[in-house]
Design a protein that fits this description.
Strand content: 15-25%
Strand order of the largest sheet: 4-3-5-6
Largest sheet: 4 strands, antiparallel
Structural class: alpha+beta
Number of helices: 5
Radius of gyration: 16 Å
Length: 153
């Protein structure tokens, strides 16, 4: 995927939804989540000599939906995995609400994902016996702390 593919984004398809919430932000459990910004700076991912993504830079303001539209195999899932802190970039950085999260350890990334990110995975990660809203609420069941209910989020 190239920078040009990202520039042509619009609302819909693969959306990124980052919200300010709970512990790290000082927002008490049960309070509404506030949208925050998500930024990619010169993001890249390579496997050996094969560059999957190169030089991806953009900023998404809070409350905005973005669709990444490009041919199959061009790096959309890789990009979303890096933005969601599930995959470490080989170049560049991801900023959440202006803070570079590249140096966070796995525990801190997990806490950030649990408290501030919302993921809806493709069909292979969904539990077939659950409704869509129930699938979306599954990560909250892993929290040992108080989180807003899935309906509130």
């Amino acid at each position: 995927m190239t920078q040009d593919a990202v520039a042509g984004t619009s609302a819909g398809a693969a959306a990124v939804d980052v919200r300010k919430g709970a512990a790290e932000s000082g927002v008490a459990a049960g309070e509404p989540f506030e949208p925050v910004s998500l930024e990619a700076r010169n993001l890249g991912k390579s496997y050996g000599d094969a560059a999957i993504l190169e030089g991806i830079s953009f900023k998404v303001e809070g409350g905005t939906s973005v669709a990444f539209v490009s041919p199959s195999g061009s790096g959309k899932s890789t990009l979303l995995s890096m933005l969601g802190l599930l995959l470490t970039p080989t170049a560049g950085s991801v900023l959440v609400n202006g803070q570079d999260v590249s140096a966070l350890d796995d525990d801190a990334k997990s806490a950030l994902r649990l408290r501030q990110f919302g993921f809806i995975f493709q069909h292979t990660q969904l539990v077939g016996s659950l409704r869509a809203v129930e699938n979306a609420a599954v990560p909250a069941s892993f929290s040992s702390g108080a989180l807003p209910s899935a309906g509130e989020r």
